[in-house]
Amino acid sequence: MMKVKRPKETERFLTNYYSVDQLVELFEISKDCRIYTPIILAGLLGLRRSEIIGLKWEAINFSAGTISIKRKAVKDKASNKDIISSKLKTAFSYRILPLPFALLDYLKRLKKHQARQAKSPSYSKDYLKYICLKSNGTRITLDEVTNGFHRLIQRHGLDKILFHDLRHSCATMLLHLNYSMKQIQEWLGHSNYQTTANIYTHVSVKDKEDMANTINNSIKMVL
Predict the structure, then answer these.
(1) How confident is the model at residue 223 (pLDDT cuts 50, 70, 90)?
(2) Which residue range is the domain that position 56 belongs to?
(3) What are the backbone dihedrals phi and psi of residue 66, each rounded to the nearest 5 degrees, phi first?
């Protein structure tokens, strides 16, 4: 082992994120988009793409106003199709989150809308238990989320980010709302504090400007 070279510390992976105003703009332009539901679940709750596609209606407790994360979608290499698994990334990924009132109301309307669509003979009856469905009743795929999001922001000229960066955007929003790093860690379902602090939360330019002004006011001296 003395001859084995010690690995270098992994470089920090650079990510982008949207501000609250940018998130609002994204929600507005995506209202008529097939992946609107995945977008708001990622932006408001910070859910992973795989967790979103794996969601079933039983995960929503409309009385308590909560959502349970306990399944995910994974790509099966043999069939190249999405399959649903109950094995999440870590034990911390299993979590129950309270839903913002606006999101809870949206999900109620979505469930009723899907029930009306299901009356059509051409509507698929194989995925009635799932939340993220297309207009024909089939489940939205992982690739459709990724590719659809890329086309959406490109078409509307929004800053280029990945769909997963909506998770970063949610984390940063919570940070700006003065929630503790521990609270954000558990909300996102991270297994350790360092992942949340070093990768998922970001300090905005406005925050840095405020910091510079605070320093300037604190030193109270002319240089």
Answers:
(1) very low
(2) 20-204
(3) -130, 165
For 169-220, the pLDDT digits (tens) are 888 888 887 787 778 888 887 666 555 545 455 545 565 455 456 545 645 5
Strand, coil or helix: 28 = helix
- pLDDT per position as a tens digit, 78-107: 999 999 999 988 888 898 888 999 999 999
Note whether residue 93 is domain-resident. yes
Q: How many domains does the chain have?
A: 1
The enclosing domain of 71 has a CATH number of 1.10.443.10
Bridge partners of residue 139, in order along the sequence: 133
Q: Does a structural domain hold residue 221?
A: no
Q: What element of type H or E holds 183?
A: helix 181-188
Strands 95-98 and 81-85 come out as unpaired
Q: Is residue 27 part of a domain?
A: yes
What are the angstrom distances between the C-alpha of 208 and each of 195, 203, 212? 22, 7, 6
- For a pLDDT cut of 70, what percent of the chain falls above it? 81
| Cα gap 41→29, rounded to integer Å | 15
Do residues 70 and 94 make contact, with C-beta atoms less than 8 angstroms apart? yes
